[in-house]
Amino acid sequence: MAIDIDTARKVAKLARIRVEEADLPKLAGQLSGILGFMEQLNEVDVTGVEPMTSVTPMRLKRRKDEVTDGNIQAQVLKNAPDAREGFFAVPKVVE
Amino acid sequence: MSANTWTIAAARDALGKGEISAVDLTMSCLTAIDAGDDLNAFVHKTPEIALEQARAADARLKGGEAPAMCGIPLGIKDLFCTKGVPSQAASNILKGFKPEYESTVTSKLFDAGAVMLGKLNMDEFAMGSSNETSAYGNAVSPWRRKGSNVQLTPGGSSGGSAAAVAADLCLAATGTDTGGSIRQPAAFTGIVGIKPTYGRVSRWGIVAFASSLDQAGPMTKSVRDAAIMLQAMAGHDPKDSTSADIPVPDFEAALTGDIRGKVIGIPKEYRMDGMPAEIEALWQTGIAMLKDAGAEVRDISLPHTKYALPAYYVIAPAEASSNLARYDGVRYGHRAKLSQGDGITEMYEKTRAEGFGPEVQRRIMVGTYVLSAGFYDAYYNRARKVRALIKRDFEVVFDEGVDAILTPATPSAAFGLGEMADADPVKMYLNDVFTVTVNLAGLPGVSVPVGLDAQGLPLGLQLIGRPWEEAPLLNYAHVLESRAGFVAKAEKWW
């Protein structure tokens, strides 16, 4: 399926990646090419096939729901571009 | 021969006998690394850490009973989080990121006494097949075509690892493989690389690309070295819920060289249109070697092979789009400079536009699209169904008594850096055509150097094993390696 410029703009928005208007046609073309390559999957008869959800059939391990870590605020914030008073700081959000 | 050219096995024996110290061995690698800057393989050098670890290894060796990896100098792919050392997945979005923790794999290697020389170049977030998407610039292969000085790709995404091992800057390196990122660069540079069974090695602390496909493994100068190093990397980890809680066998002990009566499958679907005659000839050579060693060679069919690449390029970007959502400029890494009035959405969008390179952006957007409302069933669910069929193809042949499968590792020898620049992205994806099925099915696969092409470049074959059977798989690889007698090295120009 060909991706038009509006769809490319929408996908970029959903992915939270800024794409300049001038770059949208090229992006749309590349996405169309990649998705066209995927169209081959329509040749496969998948009737009655369950989607693969786990690489190795195994039950996920469980553990007690209890705190196993903590008191490492400084470490958690160490790499933050902007940390203040023990929090991650971001631009003001007004809804 | 300078000690940096040694195998792990040779170094282990020399260290054990006291013929060399871990410090001297490490120094020989550090010297080679400084002389190898033209390869752009090591992107963060850690000589202080290396020498401190080497001194500790020497103390441990003196005490006797040191593990096999004790004192062995390694390069670590930039995808592994290493405490206090830049770990940025070759991306600008993680520029300056120094983890406060150590990945399970590097912890295990260091606990075994291994020495970290530094971090290795790679494709950004492991998305690429030529190491050309790296924020650090291209890694360069030590290999060149006969009579040419054109710079070649070491492959990708573990291109820095491959270049560093092939050029003897280190004894071995860690790699990761989501669609062929260990095996393809290993084949391009004439070294050995194994992607273990999904779940054999912990993924904890490795920057995630596609969580159902990613698996770490060793990249080494010999099959024996791969066995030794995988031993130290493998094992259950409570911090990775997909890591398998099953015993790890002795991989090196499995290298008996005896493969009599074993059944090696040759899949007809891997004979691609337009495949170079040299690759076909190499494959036939490999078949003859295994037959000669007493294996039974059998033609098999894996009918859904053709659909592996398109299924992979739905599933991997889908998982990547989720995994890479965490890079938002809030908790770590890059944050864009904001203009007056910019809110949090602009912060996300500008940060991600500046931080991610074009290929990573493309894959995130493809993944976003195939997961979006209205397309989820048509693309993502269909790809997961095809994935189930690809896995079933392998289960059928293994049930019929096939012990391992022999295929080419790559559809060509290494290409020149920049040669694919104008090609559409799908053409680059074709590099993974022989390796990607293995990730989709979660199987172990190993690439072994078997010969040189007419231009003097290495070519490799791939062996694919049954789940959890890395030990016999390495034994088949060992037989192939012994019979091929591949000893060629790149002529030093750097």
Describe the structure.
The complex is a heterodimer of chains A (95) and B (494). Chain A is mainly alpha-helical and 95 residues long. Chain A contains three helices and two strands; from the N terminus they run αααββ. In chain A, helix 1 packs across helix 2. Chain A is flat. Chain B is of the alpha/beta class. Helices cover 36% and strands 13% of the residues of chain B. Chain B has 15 helices and eleven strands. An eleven-stranded mixed β-sheet of chain B has the order 1-3-2-4-6-5-10-11-9-7-8, sandwiched between helices. In chain B, helix 2 packs antiparallel against helix 3, helix 7 packs antiparallel against helix 15 and helix 9 packs across helix 12. Chain B starts with 7 loop residues before the first helix and ends in a 10-residue tail after the last helix. The model of chain B has no long low-confidence stretch (mean pLDDT 97). The interface between A and B is large, with 51 and 71 residues.
Pick out its properties.
heterodimer, A: 95 residues, mainly alpha, B: 494 residues, alpha/beta, 11 strands, globular
Give the SSE layout:
The complex is a heterodimer of chains A (95) and B (494).
Chain A (H helix, E strand, L loop, with lengths): L4 H10 L9 H15 L34 H5 L5 E2 L2 E2 L7
Antiparallel strand pairs in A: 1-2
Chain B lengths: L7 H9 L5 H13 L7 E4 L1 H16 L10 E5 L26 H8 L3 E6 L38 H8 L5 E6 L5 H7 L2 E4 L19 E6 L2 H11 L29 E5 L9 H16 L3 E5 L7 H16 L20 H12 L2 H14 L4 H24 L4 E5 L16 H5 L6 H6 L3 E8 L5 E8 L4 H15 L10
Parallel strand pairs in B: 2-3, 2-4, 7-8, 7-9
Antiparallel strand pairs in B: 1-3, 4-6, 5-6, 5-10, 9-11, 10-11
Helix pairs in contact in B: 2-3, 5-6, 7-15, 9-11, 9-12
